[in-house]
Amino acid sequence: MSGRLAYGRAASSEACRRGCRYRVQHRQMQTDRRRRWAFRAVVAAFTLGSIPSVGLDAGPGVLAHGGRSLPAVEPHFKYGSIGAELANGMPYRMFMALPKVFPEYFLPEGDWSHFGLIIEGATTPQGRPRYDIYASATSPSAPAGTRLAPATSEPRISRDLPIGFATGWRLGIEMTWFNCAVCHTGVVQMPGDERPRIVPGMPANTVDLERLFLALFDMAVDKRFTYCRVCRSISQPTNRWPFMSVHCGNGSWCRTYARR
Fold first, then answer.
1. Which residues contact 82 (CB under 8 A, 6 or more apart)?
2. What are the Cα distances from residue 208, in Å, to 64, 89, 175, 182, 240?
3. Under 8 Å between Cβ of 218 and 211
4. What is the pLDDT of residues 216-239, one digit of tens each?
5. pTM for the whole thing?
6. How far apart, in Å, are the Cα atoms of 187 and each of 76, 106, 112?
7. How do residues 154-201 score in pLDDT, each as one tens digit?
8. Strand runs labelled E in the chain
9. What are phi and psi of 141, to 5 degrees?
10. Which of 47, 58, 104, 156 is the most buried (most CB within 10 A)?
11. At 158, is the secondary structure helix, strand, or coil?
12. In whole angstroms, what is the distance from residue 180 CA to residue 182 CA?
């Protein structure tokens, strides 16, 4: 009788081991299958992203690498690359989305001007330009008999970034970070001026870099700093990464990923 019990227990233990081994192998096969499909999807996204799309402003291919230069001296000083974004920058779209992901860090302005950064195209609540810039006598926006003109921002040049932020491409991803102008552009208002004027080359008398970096450090360790939350806050979908755009548009992949 005892022999039968021992045999039954041994058989039961062997069945358990086989069942456990089967479940582990099955789970490993499922994981490997998901990884293979994820790899194929990433390869497809990179391949599609590297193919120029006519009329879609697709930008450089996936292997593009280099900072952006501007032909005119002053725009290049304000927004041209010195290489910092290639070495230490963050993705441009993520940078632009952070005020939406962490609005409490940007109140009351709601944008990067909260840290004293100068946004050239900023307007007042009444919709008027906030700053003046030095303009040539032939500038169409300069009133007659004056050296100043209302500051405006051309997105093709500024990329809607504050003065002192340049852009470049690293392995096909548009990056942004500081250039010299972040510390060497200031704002002054002379007696009789309607608006403060932006002065390239002077010390930055408005920027608080310490407060900016402390806020970035806090955001980096915040639990809300996730791929899905940042992706949903990106206002302009990209045509260069269709795989990413699909999953940013609907939340199903994010919800599935969060459960794992």
1. 67, 166, 179, 180
2. 33, 19, 22, 10, 35
3. no
4. 999 999 999 988 888 888 855 444
5. 0.67
6. 19, 20, 16
7. 888 898 999 999 999 988 889 999 999 999 999 999 888 889 999 999
8. 65-67, 90-91, 132-134, 148-150, 165-170, 173-178, 185-188, 197-200
9. -90, -5
10. 58
11. helix
12. 6
